[in-house]
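To illustrate the input format used throughout this study, we show a single complete record. The first block contains the structure-token representation of the backbone; no residue identities are included at this stage. The design step must infer an amino acid for every position from geometry alone.
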């Protein structure tokens, strides 16, 4: 198997959902479905036998649910990228799931094109959140405890949106050297040293504004930063 082809396991207790996703994956040259199972225990067994690159996990399943499975995968297979499929947009649940190191959260109202975008985003090492889920997160921001200055919050927002330092500097009207300084300070204060962790933190703490396009997060000024 080519190293460019990503192995995917599908975990959902609904036969039609599993079959639909398998059919979708069959038409995508960069992905291959190595297993499609109906519960968390079978998913763990499949991961032990043939570890995937990505695992698509339904949140609500009998026995071991998606949250329990994500917890187990973080302990046993931290390199597997977990993408949650859920009908819930409850902000507390989304934050709880993202805190487990999950790389994506997709509403089960998704169209197939969105699922493809989510898998490609996660595969590229970024985090994907469905637009409606992002909106729910921003409407119910978490309690801020960032301890960052307003400028650092702006830099953190830019990092979480996937912007390079040069673009952040241009958007903020500051030098590239100043952006690099703020970035280093942010990582030191938060003890987070990669973009995925910073993005997850920004989502959990309401540092990002409301959602724009699919999977994107617009840069409206949030209360978590203005209070800093």
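Output of the design step:
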């Amino acid at each position: 198997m080519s190293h460019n082809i990503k192995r995917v396991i599908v975990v959902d207790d609904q036969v039609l959902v599993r079959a639909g996703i398998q059919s979708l994956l069959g038409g995508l040259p960069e992905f291959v479905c190595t297993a499609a199972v109906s519960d968390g225990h079978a998913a763990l067994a499949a991961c032990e036998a043939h570890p995937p690159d990505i695992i698509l996990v339904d949140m609500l399943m009998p026995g071991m649910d998606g949250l329990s499975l994500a917890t187990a995968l973080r302990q046993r297979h931290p390199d597997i990228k977990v993408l949650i499929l859920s009908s819930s947009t409850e902000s507390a649940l989304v934050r709880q799931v993202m805190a487990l190191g999950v790389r994506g959260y997709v509403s089960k109202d998704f169209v197939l094109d969105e699922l493809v975008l989510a898998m490609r985003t996660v595969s590229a090492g970024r985090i994907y959140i469905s637009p409606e889920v992002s909106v729910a997160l921003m409407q119910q921001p978490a309690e801020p405890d960032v301890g960052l200055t307003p400028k650092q919050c702006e830099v953190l927002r830019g990092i979480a949106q996937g912007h390079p330092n040069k673009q952040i500097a241009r958007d903020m009207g500051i030098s590239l050297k100043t952006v690099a300084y703020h970035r280093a300070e942010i990582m030191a204060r938060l003890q987070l040293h990669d973009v995925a962790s910073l993005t997850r933190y920004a989502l959990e703490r309401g540092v990002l504004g409301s959602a724009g396009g699919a999977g994107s997060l617009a840069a409206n000024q949030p209360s978590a930063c203005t209070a800093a």
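Structural context for interpreting the output: Strands lie at 6-11, 31-37, 54-58, 81-86, 104-107, 128-129. The two ends are 50 Å apart (CA to CA).
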